[in-house]
Amino acid sequence: MPHLALRSLAQKYGPILFLQLGEIPTVVVSSARLAKEALKTHDLALSSRPQIFSAKHLFYNCTDVVFSPYGAYWRQIRKICILELLSAKRVQSYSFVREQEVARLVRRVAESYPGTTNLSKMLALYSNDVLCRVAFGRDFSGGGEYDKHGFQKMLEENEIKTSANLSLFQSTFDQMVTEHLNPMREKEEHKDLVDVLLDVQKEGSLEMPLTMDNVKAIILDMFAAGTDTTFITLDWGMTELIMNPKVMEKHKLKSSIASSCSSVGPKRIYGTCNDRWIRYSAKTRIFVNAWAIGRDPETWENPETFEPERFWGSNIDFKGQDFELIPFGAGRRGCPAVTFGTATIELALAQLLHSFDWELPTGTRAKDLDMTEAFGITMHRIAHLIVLAKPRFA
Ligand code: HEM
Predict the structure, then answer these.
(1) Which of 114, 145, 178, 359 is the most exposed place for a label (fewest CB within 10 A)?
(2) What's the rounded Cα separation, in Å, for the pair 98 and 111?
(3) 328 touches ligand 1 (CB under 6 Å)
(4) What is the pLDDT of residues 20-43, one digit of tens each?
(5) Which CATH class is domain 2-391?
(6) CA of 327 to the centre of ligand 1 (A)
């Protein structure tokens, strides 16, 4: 696991390392101070990502936001994301989707009682459903659509074997966009992200007009960058809470008292989730080990203990200002969807804590849970979280 191996090296050799990884000169940064230097002082020089082979194939020749190189095109589409697709106003306009999907999540979990529930599966469905409805205005898991298109499966498999799935993936996207272009299509009350992008494209005020492939690349990013991150944050958060019933109780109490969800605010949970990412300068790859930084004993007391209360009353910023906690990255290429992501996670987490008493299945102890992580762009547990969720308001 790179984040673990690189932390071990940093503990031995210091917070900045140079590694020659095959042909690629690589610098690994593992302290808040050096992350700030990389992502703030030298942000401009490190504002591109490596255009890996599979990204060129999958993301329409890297014309999406994540992989397009720093320059006029990236600035234009990033601006569209910030101002149009992921603005606070737009995120607010999708509150009905979040509310309905959280209600469905709670219903699905409740239905499994008195049996156990595969919470990981439910959380993956939730993240996928929110993104599908927001992006396409379509419900993929109700009425068999989800299985028909199999988005989650496609996304998972595309990480492993790109070309085999590529045409299936792209044909689904083509179909979605074609449906949106149909003048006979019934106008929805709420615009989805494809509608918004097609409007921007039509307005014709862009310096570089967007092609249909550009539109698809941007939408694909919303899935690729949005579903797994949301899912793993919820999955790790719930895993830690269920393994630490005393912590769960404290937060449950807060989520019951609070009229909004602010009591289980994201920074409390993001402190626990794994994250690392890669930036790129002209020749050298930079790894920022955000996972190690979030557990640095120089900054954090008892860094290995799950203690989300440490953030109560703290004003540490988790959106890229304070480099001790950077789950969303920082600087020019920092995550443009902090508002979107936190809104999707907060409501689900607060409702899950509020609606159920959580236990591990009889005979399973917290220390028996297999915490092995899968190797990938995001790090999720290989084992699913199987739990007993007792409805509190049946
Ligand atoms: C818990 C949820 C999320 C986490 C923890 C997360 C984290 C991150 C991180 C660490 C980066 C790289 C930052 C850097 O290089 O400094 C990133 C970039 C990005 N994220 Fe997120 N993200 C989340 C949710 C989302 C969602 C929901 C979307 C879209 C709907 C999204 C879209 C993007 C995009 C497009 C980029 C690339 C930005 C660019 O290169 O200009 N993210 N995210």
Answers:
(1) 114
(2) 20
(3) yes
(4) 989 888 899 999 999 999 999 999
(5) mainly alpha
(6) 9
